[in-house]
Automatic annotation (TrEMBL):
UniProt keyword annotations, A-Z: Heme biosynthesis, Lyase, Magnesium, Metal-binding, Porphyrin biosynthesis
Top enzyme category: lyase
Top-level taxon: Bacteria
Record protein name field: Delta-aminolevulinic acid dehydratase
The keyword Magnesium appears for this protein: yes
Molecular function, one GO term: zinc ion binding
EC number: 4.2.1.24
UniProt pathway: Porphyrin-containing compound metabolism; protoporphyrin-IX biosynthesis; coproporphyrinogen-III from 5-aminolevulinate: step 1/4
Amino acid sequence: MNRKEAISAMQRSVDEITGGRRLRRMRKANWSRRMVRENHLSVDDLIWPIFLVDGEGRKESIDAMPGVYRYSVDLAVREAERAAKLGIPAIATFPNIDNRLKDEGGSLILDADNLINKASRAIKDAVPEMGIITDVALDPFTSHGHDGVLRNGNIINDETVELIAQAAVLQAAAGADIIAPSDMMDGRVGAIRDALDVAGYSDVAIMAYSAKYASAFYGPYREAIGTSGLLKGDKKTYYVDPANGEEAVREAEQDLAEGADMLMVKPGLPYLDVIHRLKQTFSVPTFAYQVSGEYAMIRAAAANGWIDGDRVVMESLMAFKRAGCDGILTYFAPEIAERLKG
């Protein structure tokens, strides 16, 4: 058998094995790969979480999150303007509160002029087209670092819900377009929906942190908002156990029944299966939060030359889209928007 005959025989053998279905055909060129690509990432998929700090002209670096900063309100406005020019549709704000202003009950959350609300008003005045997402959890405001009222070692569910429902109205009044409760208290979505509607904010949406896990990936975030050294105990009595998937489905079902407009899973990459299940089960807008630990790992590995950071960031965001996400909260948002624009 000559070489030509051998090649022909091998081709017949592969065709017999595959039944003539050669799946590499559409991978052979850039144009064909693009033509059959199943998922696409655009700037419309990006939500940028930013950290706030009191004062003026302040831009503070965060050691555990290289490239991420805390901004005073005036500088946060400039960043929101930059994000708008890049086409980023929304930002999510998280405050770093002076420890001297914190107390056991997180009472500052009910101050209409607290850091979150000041930032919302300033950003909405300067960039009215920018969507603003605010969190009503108590942890930035409590002296113990928990998301709720702590008494005798227990988080008091109903008292916490009452506080965050009031806070949600104040945040809506300040210009928040979406309230995103991350505390995981029972009944908080329904209470917030009722409070917003009664106060005349029926157009303000709710993005429920429906599957917020008791994760070890939050460490850098707690440094960013100044709670890393405050937490007494852990949050396992109200966040979802990382071993559970069915529980996340039940949480999402309950949040939707109470009036949530969209769902969120947090963290992101370790819970792609949960994202996919929620999207397939409920067919509602579903989001993921690529949390601080995910960000820090990519940055650290890239800084050490162990990975191609740019490619890994894009691949990680595409994984969210593949799992079913309609959008992603990510600290990489501005640089990804720049890259997509370029």
